[in-house]
Amino acid sequence: SVSFKVKFDSKYPLLPLKKFVEINPSKSELKELNDNDMVSFIDMASVSVNGYVEVMQEKAYSEVKSGYTYFRNGDIIIAKITPCMENGKCALVEKLTNNVGFGSTEFHVFRCGESLSNRYLFALLNTDNIRYLASCNMKGSSGHRRVPDTFYSSMEIPVPPMDIQKKIADECGAIDKEFKEKVDKLFRLRQELSDYIDSLQNGSTVKLSSVCSVKGGKRIPKGLGYVDTPTSHPYIRVSDFYDGTIDESNLVYITDDVFDKIKSYTISSGDVYISIAGSIGVVGTVPMTLNGANLTENAAKLIIDPTKTTKEYLSSILKSESVQEQIANATNRVGVPKLALHRIENILVRIPSMEEQHAAVAHILKIRKNIDPAKNAAESCASRKQAILDKYLK
């Protein structure tokens, strides 16, 4: 395995984290509690990806003293397991009952000494750079990979004077607060959109085959592959499906010779795509720039009848909870999970009048118009925090 070390570009000396921090402190120091005393309990689901604890339960010490991770007020907890760590589940814990908390065994715990501010360390740990390098150092089998405590104990960090640590902590803390507000707004908007799309399924339904035909994509012939340089024949994969459209940043291409062998398996900008293998049930439309591109065998295209529905309405309704449940139930679980084309045809959808469809799409676009700025604002917070660290440390 390859080890990736964290390297800070800092004007301050880089010193071992373990010199200033106790990692995963022992429960043996707990002497003041009786079995009936109440303590706080934090499970993994209660730690948000925004860097704070959403919910704290209270439990008797006797219930949690064995089999759980121990921490105190002022400690930092950070997820060690995938995908929780990559998603940003990390928090500075405060206001614990009786000053003591317990939680998931999938947390690492950091307790700072007097010469290192816990808020400053939280600002360092809660960055995309650290999370990326931590993910590179994970160990274990797929789905159960974890960051070992040795990754953190071997880390060297810049340790500026305490007044600089405080400035970094204050400024990053202000951005964290703003980030929480932005993400909360984003969550509310996405929930509003999801609830509205779910409501569109209320009423009588028809089989999907009554408003569109379903055609599969095509695998590249054995022995042939993609080419590095762009050609006039882009090949769309499931990994390119993103946010209801196509992410064109990592497209692959095929040559004229390969295209001649699979030229019947293209998708138009008027169709709707649906993934049928891998991440099953991902739906969206193809931009005009990719009209006529070849489509992977792991997806299908829905060729709509324009007199009965629109691609915008159909791609939206296919994202509803009831349709996604139908997709999940129709997926073959024997061997490699796959959604058969004939099962897609039998999916039940509500298709109202064209006038109602246009009104629904207009409302969806109105909500999405607010989602994109909220998403961009939340994403900008990470780069602004990194700018603060650079300002004081470089």
Task: Write structural notes for this entry.
This protein has helices spanning about 60-65, 85, 120-125, 130-135, 150-155, 160-200, 255-260, 310-315, 320-330, 340-345, 355-394; strands spanning about 15, 20-25, 40, 55-60, 70, 75-80, 90, 100-105, 105-110, 155-160, 205, 210-215, 235, 240, 245, 250-255, 265, 270-275, 285, 295, 300-305, 350. Strand 18 and strand 19 (about 285) form a beta hairpin. The chain has eleven helices and 22 strands. Helix 6 (about 160-200) runs antiparallel to helix 11 (about 355-394). Helices cover about 35% and strands about 20% of the residues. It has about 400 residues and is an alpha+beta fold. The longest helix has about 40 residues, at about 355-394.
Structural class: alpha+beta
Helix segment count?
11
Strands ordered across the widest β-sheet? 2-9-6-7
Silhouette: elongated
| Strands, total number | 22
The whole-number mean of residue pLDDT values reads: 92
- The percent range for helix content is 25-40%
The largest pleated sheet is described as: 4 strands, antiparallel
Termini separation:
31 Å
Low-confidence stretches: none
Proportion of strand residues: 15-25%
Radius of gyration based on Cα positions: 26 Å
Describe this protein with a few key phrases.
four-stranded mixed beta sheet; 394 residues; four-stranded antiparallel beta sheet; alpha+beta
